[in-house]
Structures are given as C-alpha cells and as structure tokens.
Amino acid sequence: MSLEAKAIPRVLVVDDEADILELLELALVRMGLEVVRASGVQQAKQCLDGGKFDLCLTDMRMPDGDGLEVVRHISERGLDVPVAVITAHGNLENAVAVLKAGAFDYLSKPVALDQLRTLVNSALRLPSADTVAREGESTLLGNSPAMAQVRELIGRVARSQAPVHISGESGSGKELAARLIVEKSARREQPFIAVNCGAIPENLMESEFFGYRKGAFTGADKDREGFFQAANQGTLLLDEVADLPMAMQVKLLRAIQEKKVRRVGATQEESADVRILSATHHDLARCVQQGSFRQDLYYRLNVISLRMPSLREMREDVPQIANRILGRLRGDTGIKFTPQALSELAKYDFPGNVRELENIIERAFALCQEGVITPADLQLMPVQSMRGEAKPGDTGKYPLTDYLDRIEREAILEALHQTHFNRTAAAKILGVTFRALRYRMERLSITDEDKVD
Question: pTM of the full predicted structure?
C-alpha cells in the first residue's frame, strides 16, 4: 500500500556569503523544506524563471545588485512567490522600502531563528493568488471605479506582512476593509484585535498595549496580557491612531520596529509577532505637519496606503448597497424601495457614509406602509441642516430634532474651541464621557475642518 507523497515546499535562498547560505539552509531543512541556493541577484532571477518556489529569502546587499531587484523581478513577472528580505539591523529605511516594493516581510540581521521560523510558517500558509482573487468579491459591494480599486488593492496587500494605513471619512468602512485584509491573509486563522486608540485613558495606554506583571502598580494582582500579546501571530488594528498621545507613539514605534514588547513591571522583553493595520478619519500627514503625530511612526504605519471612498464618490453603487441593507432587514416581508426612493438616496451626500445609510434605511423600514419605501419614508435632510447650519430665515424651533441638533452642535463646538480641539478636555467641560463626545461629533458631522485657527 502506498501513500501519495505530499509536495515538499521549496525555498530559494539568495546570499553572496557561503556561510550565511549554509546556516539558512540548515535551519530550513530542519523545518522539512527543500532549499535551492543562489549566490547573487542574477542567479536568483534565473532560478525563479526556471522553477516553482513557495518562498524566496534574499539578502539586501550583494555584489551584483540588491534584494529589491529580486522583489521587483517577482512582482513584474507575476510570480506567485512571497519574498522576504534580510536587512541590516535597525535600518528602518530599507525595511519600509522592501515592503513598499511588494515584499512579504523582512528580517533584521543577525537573523533570529525563532523569527525565521515564524516568517516561513506564515508565508507557507498564504492562500494562492487565484484563491484571493476569487474569495470575498461580494463583501465590498459596488461596481464603481473607486470600489473596484479598493478591492484590487486589498487582494494585493493581503499577501504581504506590510503595515497598511486605512484612511477615509467616518462610516466609510475602514474596519471592514481591515477585516477583509485579514481574511485573505496568511493570518486569517489567528487573532484579530481591533483597538480604538481614542477610547483608552492616557495613563492606561502602556499597560493596555503591552500588559503588566503582578505587583507592577496598585491593583495589579496578577499578570495580564496586553493587546500585542493577545494579537500574537495575528493582526492588530489601531483604529483612530491619530488620537495616540505623543509618549505612546514613541513606545509603539519601538515595539513595531523591534517586534518585541516589555510588560509594565517586567525586566525582560518578549517577542510579539503582530501585523499592524491602522485607521483614522483624520489626515495623518497633516497631523505630522502640525506636530501632533511623529513622522517616523507615520512612515512606519503608512507603508501601504488604502483610502476608503465616501458614498459621494460612488453614487452609482448606492442603490445596490441600499438594497443589500434592506434585504438584511426585511426577511420575508417583501418590502422594497420605490424607484424614486432609490433615486433620492443616490443624490444624497451622506455625511456619515454607509453608517448613515444603514440608519436611514432602518428608520424607513419602520415607517413605511403598504410594503414600499417612498422618498417621504427616508426623511432625508439637506446636508447643511445635518451640519447644523441654519437656512436663511430659519430661526424657529421646529422641527424639534433639527433645533436640538443645532443647540447641541453649538455647545460641543464651543467646548472644543475653548480646549483647542482637545476632545478629552472638551468632554470634561461638557460633563460627558470621551466616547459619548466622539459619538455626538460623528452624528453631527463635526470634524477638524470646523476648527477655528
């Protein structure tokens, strides 16, 4: 009786130093892999063109070129081979460059065997490029050019370990995009931890992110993991990353670069194999210019940029998205939109994007009669009314909801201007929690654009 032999993964190792090649080959063979050596860039290209590989591991600097040439060769020929580059220790510039060029990941010299094994195992768990292209196409709805571009980029970045920064207006689906990246990646079966950076008190930041040892401070009655330990081998989403205080930005940068963290009260660092995704509705580059966000952390997080389009940029997709939301709500009731209602939705500006669209449809679903949703059921308001800007001659107190929204918006803006848009301080003035203030700002479409210089 014979068993069908399982194909042994093949790894191409590229380095001009024979002793390094031998050490890497020995480590990889012990992992049960087949290894092919190449002593330089040109030989590596010949090997890649002449055979199939499951992973390429290349040094950065060699006499006949550098690792970036190998990365680009794989990319230009459309080869389904994840490639990792070995860079000089602490060289952030090279690490970012190889990731931007399309490398799966990088390793710093001297290569730690535990990090090498982790990288290899992650690369070998990657779904094929064809599988990524087929899966999840219907999750992000829409046929507009803007949404097609987002789907295409998500498919590409999912096959990398590179940090991705997701920007876009509130309610545009930034966390959904992050989840799709994870679902298509080698880490899809590992933990995914989403952290709202703006909701953590500053004095708890370090212990929340890195954990703490028993006795580290009053109340620390046992060891506790932080977000990095909880996301180990998986993915950490830093939502509203622009809200991180400067002191925490420094510590976060080091943790990302070194792939190690130290718990509060601990003397030793521990490895943290975490892919970082980040998101914010702020313009992070502008935050760097204003001095509220570190430039080095910005470059580390923004290796690959993904911008989620607003509904205003994809009006042709609104009817499809609206029908999908309604289908989720109606069950077997048969309720549907009139053509006029769908037309009104497509023309609306949606300051709150998909989150607002869901809210509008839920309300219309509850109000509609005779099984159809009409424009009247949608109760769409002019955008200027949503933003609290009174129309000429509008000095009355009706409708009541509009009037109360205007009063609330004025009070919030007054507190924000008093505190130079420090939301934590403004929340204290208003007597509400930070989270409640953020919710109200999103609902009333208050953004940094309302700041008075």
Answer: 0.71
